[in-house]
């Protein structure tokens, strides 16, 4: 993705922050347990979160007792995160791009970014994250992948709606099996600042009614970026497909991936 696409698309989430908060599924509890095993997560630990959104990963970290500074680009997203974090006095949300945010002098123990690291300038994110933490600190990034499974027939058939309404859709693409999703550590391997990279993976099936599924799609930057008539035709097509052929319910399989590395220099 080029710089201008990234900068345009990353601003779409805050256009309807309440929808994002309602429709996005949050993260598996087991992921925070694993994170706590490999990183300083708990009372007194300093966490910098990049792109906290509405706080879907931030609240569980605050519940673990972490001292958190969360840097979020979208004002409306940050407002919801602040509301959800209001009972935690050790959590602060700052509205800024991570690239422009001046690092505080006191280093963090953990820098975490949940479904947001790929929105940060690739020339900045690894080094600036390293600079934000003490040596031995942890960089934890979380990625969400859409994989084969759940309502397989629906996901095969829905491709026709995308090909019909969005001319940029490649022909005949299918969701990958989880074993085909590559563990991508290149940017950390290439940097001399971090040691060996570890991955943890979690698969979940989530069932949606037609309206819930359409709301979820309305939160994706690629969908939000479509022209209004294209989006509305696409969502009508998908809604009709779910209602007429899939009993008004679909099950979507998610692969959540936690990637962890420790700062060595
Ligand atoms: C897909 S959302 C993830 C939000 C949240 N971490 C979650 O897991 O639900 C990506 C978030 O990153 C934020 N973001 C994108 N680019 C950013 C940047 N350069 N600096 C700070 N936040 C950024 C967006 O505003 C959005 O809230």
Tell me the span between the first and last alpha carbons: 29 Å
Radius of gyration: 19 Å
The shape is globular
Number of domains: 1
Q: Helix share of residues? A: 25-40%
> What's the helix count?
11
What proportion of the residues form beta strands (DSSP E)? 15-25%
- What does the average pLDDT come to? 97
Structural class: alpha/beta
CATH topology: Rossmann fold
> Which molecules other than protein and nucleic acid are bound?
S-adenosylmethionine
CATH class: Alpha Beta
Order of helices and strands: HHHEHEHEEHEHHEHHHE
Report the major sheet.
7 strands, mixed
CATH homologous superfamily title: Vaccinia Virus protein VP39
Number of beta-strand segments: 7
The CATH architecture can be named as 3-Layer(aba) Sandwich
Residue stretches low in confidence (pLDDT < 50, at least 5 long) are none
Strand order of the largest sheet: 3-2-1-4-5-7-6
């Amino acid at each position: 993705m080029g710089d201008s696409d990234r900068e345009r698309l990353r601003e779409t989430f805050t256009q309807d922050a309440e929808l994002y908060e309602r429709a996005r599924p949050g993260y598996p509890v087991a992921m925070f347990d694993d994170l706590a095993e490999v990183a300083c997560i708990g009372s007194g630990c300093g966490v910098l979160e990049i792109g906290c959104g509405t706080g879907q990963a931030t609240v569980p970290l605050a519940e673990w007792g972490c001292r958190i500074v969360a840097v979020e680009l979208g004002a409306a997203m940050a407002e919801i995160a602040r509301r959800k974090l209001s009972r935690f006095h050790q959590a602060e949300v700052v509205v800024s791009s991570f690239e422009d945010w001046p690092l505080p002098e006191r280093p963090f123990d953990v820098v975490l970014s949940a479904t947001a690291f790929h929105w940060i300038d690739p020339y900045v994110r690894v080094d600036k994250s390293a600079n934000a933490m003490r040596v031995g600190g942890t960089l934890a990034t979380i990625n969400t992948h859409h994989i084969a499974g759940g309502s397989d027939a629906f996901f095969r058939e829905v491709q026709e709606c995308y090909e019909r309404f969005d001319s940029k859709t490649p022909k005949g693409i299918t969701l990958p099996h989880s074993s085909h999703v590559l563990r991508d550590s290149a940017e950390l391997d290439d940097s001399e600042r971090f040691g060996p990279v570890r991955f943890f993976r979690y698969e979940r099936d989530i069932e949606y009614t037609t309206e819930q599924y359409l709301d979820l799609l309305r939160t994706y930057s690629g969908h939000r970026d479509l022209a209004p008539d294209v989006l509305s035709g696409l969502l009508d097509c998908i809604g009709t497909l779910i209602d007429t052929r899939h009993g008004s319910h679909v099950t979507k399989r998610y692969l959540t991936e936690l990637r962890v590395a420790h700062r060595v220099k």
